Amino acid sequence: MNQKRSQQAWEIAQQYLPGGVNSPVRAYRGVGGTPPFVAKGRGAQIEDIDGNIYIDYVASWGPLILGHAHPEVLTAIQQAAAQGTSFGAPTERESLLAKKIIDAVPSIERVRCVNSGTEATMSAIRLARGFTGRDKIIKMEGCYHGHVDHLLVKAGSGAITFGMPDSAGVPADFAQHTLTAPYNDADALEAIFKKFPEEIACVALEPIPGNMGVIPPKESYLQDVRAITEKYGALLLFDEVISGFRVAYGGAQELYDVIPDLTCLGKIIGGGLPVGAYGGKKEIMDCIAPLGDVYQAGTLSGNPLAMSAGLATLEQLEKPGTYQRLEELSARLASGLEDALKDIPTYHARVGSMLCTFFTDEPVSDYQTAKQSDTEMFARYFHHMQEQGIWLAPSQFETMFVSLAHTEEDIDRTVEAACGFRM
Ligand code: KE4
Question: Ligand 1 centroid vs 127 CA: distance in angstroms?
């Protein structure tokens, strides 16, 4: 694969940006090699600056459920931009997107937009602490909620990839109120509550973790977590930055019929532009400034371009048949990959259009079992697929996303590429 121009661009980038990137996982440290520099994307395809074309399963880490450069999204952005890019004042589009989110997500009666998933989870945790008057929080090992100090504790995504689940630069007393439990283990969660029965403000988790690979919740796990938080007066926070509008129009909480107190969103609701959001019951959200005494603010929060891109995206997703189509394509891909890799120690996980192939022959149900994966073999698989024109996340501990722009031909080509992989 010709990477001449990407290699030149990579040399330049490393002179100006730490590690050559604006976000660590893009640097290919988990798989080695030079990251291709992207020229453009269209539909399910990405083209790099050397003219190599790939079928894309990263989807900008989740937002592009419609595919790249969807015409309705582009038009919405162009029309919004023609009116001005930011005002720092209320606009009607903010209310329109808020209403769509409230109508879609069962737990949300009021919602506040911010500019990233990190801002959403940081703000929601502060709100949970302000509402309950309690300081401690519980997160699940391997879940990733963005790079806010007190959540970089046994975190997933890039933190696992680089073996640094507890970041440098976070003073011990910043993280002292953050307790962790294994995902998919309700007994371990309750054991923490028994030690601190009246001190836990909230339990925060990805209902379907996508940052230690994809790990489906065990039967009744989410229902058990909900019951435990209610028993001890703690709030339940679903981080649906990935799963929101991804696995169902109402997210994982609709799919599993478990209603949290607070929900964090991002990615898809911005249609590829910077966005995050947190929402929940009116009683809780009314504690946020200017109504209440929990402060949170943002210069570009509710930005007209991001609101327009988000609205255009959700308008496509609310159409009948959307999630059935995603399910058809994703099931076709999952069964094809399982068959293609049947002679290689692999464990396949999927929820809707979130997939992961773990290079281990042991079942994966949490952080500890995910970490048993053979990351060297994943790296070889990654480069094999890249050579075949398949664009995967450069880490074993991420998610493979199917979009509405993928076709059966794309899926079959991907499966054919996987058939050629040898240990
Ligand atoms: P951002 O601050 O990156 O917009 O969102 C943080 C975040 C919060 N919650 C969940 C469940 C997330 O997955 C994320 C961010 N996801 C990673 C990839 N798994 C973003 C990619 C990156 O860090 O470059």
Answer: 20
Choose one of 61, 264, 398 to mutate for the ligand 1 pocket test, by most ligand atoms within 8 angstroms of C-beta: 61
Claim to verify: residue 325 and residue 280 sit in the same structural domain: no
Distance in Å, CA 353 to ligand 1 centroid: 17
Residue given tokens 């010709």 in the structure block = 2
Indicate which atom in ligand 1 lies nearest the CA of residue 243: 11
Q: Facing residues of 354 across strands?
A: 351, 401
Please check whether residues 118 and 226 belong to one and the same domain: yes
pLDDT tens profile 372-415: 999 999 999 999 999 999 999 999 999 999 999 999 999 999 99
The amino acid at 176: Q
Active site positions, annotated: 144, 239, 267
For residues 225 and 88, state if they share a domain. yes
Asked whether residue 58 is domain-assigned, the answer is: no
Residues 103 and 226 placed together within one structural domain of the fold: yes
Mean pLDDT of 283-297: 98
Query: Which domain covers residue 39, as residue numbers?
Result: 1-53
Looking at the fold, whether 15 and 76 belong to one and the same domain comes out as no
Angle of helix 408-419 versus helix 375-387 axis, rounded to 10: 120
Residue 161 sits in a domain of what CATH number? 3.40.640.10
Reply yes or no on whether the pLDDT at 172 is more than 90.
no
Max distance between CA atoms of the chain, in angstroms, equals: 60
Ligand 1-lining residues (CB < 6 angstroms): 23, 25, 61, 116-118, 121, 144-146, 157-158, 206, 210-211, 239, 241-242, 266, 276, 398
For the chain, give the mean pLDDT. Answer: 96
Say what the pTM is: 0.97
CA distance 311 to 313: 5
Q: How far is the CA of 22 from the centre of ligand 1 (A)?
A: 13
379: domain CATH number is 3.90.1150.10
Amino acid at 418: A
Q: Are 127 and 287 in contact (CB under 8 A)?
A: yes
